[in-house]
From TrEMBL:
GO terms for biological process: microtubule-based process; mRNA transport; protein transport. SUPFAM superfamilies: DLC. The keyword Protein transport applies. InterPro entries: DLC_sf, Dynein_light_chain_typ-1/2. Its main location: cytoplasm. Pfam families: Dynein_light (PF01221). Gene3D superfamilies: Protein Inhibitor Of Neuronal Nitric Oxide Synthase. This is Dynein light chain. GO terms for cellular component: cytoplasmic dynein complex; microtubule; nucleus. GO terms for molecular function: dynein intermediate chain binding. It is found in: Cytoplasm, Cytoskeleton; Nucleus. Keywords: Cytoplasm, Cytoskeleton, Dynein, Microtubule, Motor protein, mRNA transport, Nucleus, Protein transport, Transport. Belongs to the dynein light chain family.
Length: 102
């Protein structure tokens, strides 16, 4: 995930925790997801909690998992399902990744 998008995720998590109590995981997830959809286009999913497992398919470069205290936040853009009308996968814009410097 681009560093700017990572920072957006961290900033939104902090803002959500200013608005909601740490026990309101669903509201925190909804807030982050909706704001990311507005800023970075539709298709984002957000999972928030203190104890969860996950097994997801995500678009390349559109995944972040981080902790704020004991609260884990998983944010990703889901991978598109095939478009069954012409049997071609749907395409969504994915941001170009910055080159990694060694």
């Amino acid at each position: 995930m681009l560093q700017t998008m990572q920072q957006d995720a961290l900033d939104l998590a902090a803002k959500a925790l200013d608005i909601f109590d740490v026990t309101e995981a669903t509201q925190i997830a909804r807030f982050i997801k909706k704001e990311f959809d507005i800023t970075h286009g539709p298709g984002w999913q957000c999972i928030v909690g203190t104890d969860f497992g996950s097994f997801v398919t995500h678009c390349y470069g559109c995944f972040i998992h981080f902790h704020v205290g004991s609260l884990a936040i998983l944010l990703f853009r889901g991978s598109a399902a095939p478009d069954m009308t012409n049997h071609q996968p749907k395409q969504f814009p994915v941001p170009a990744l910055e080159s990694v410097k060694s």
